Amino acid sequence: MTIAPQRVVTLHYVLSDAEGRVLDDSRARHKPLEYLHGHGNILAGLEDALAERAVGDQSSVTLSPAEAYGERDEALVREVGRDAFSVSDLEPGMRFQTPGDDGPEIVTVLETRDDSVLIDTNHPLAGQSLTYRVEVLDIRDATRAELAKGHPLPPGTTPDEVEDKKMV
Questions:
Q1: Which of 55, 125, 136, 141 has the fewest CB atoms within 10 Å, i.e. is most exposed?
Q2: What segment(s) does the record annotate as region Disordered (predicted)?
């Protein structure tokens, strides 16, 4: 069986930046990645590179910033009032997840001022070329419930536990 739409893929990966620094390693975390191919669960460039791979295949793919998390946009660096944060002891480098127009977004604190905070809403990896080294561990057909939800579900999930997004 090969990787194709409507299949659940399990893989290990090592994510590195252009300088070769490891940013994430699923094997080191003892947690392989599981995703539903063709449903936008992972970066499109990575998904394209994995198509037609089989269990045991190992490969490396480098994504440009545009193929990964986009180019940096300095318009996404802005000043907001301190009252936008529920935490009083803010420090540069702190990250928060907030609701955004297109879903959750990560906000990074760049600088704190008396009454305001300079934040960056670019993805933390925006503007970077990224290399994924992957090993395909498993491929299986998705269940009807997984197709309805658009992502893999925990083993043993019953159909009555799943709300069909097509029916809502």
A1: 141
A2: 147-168
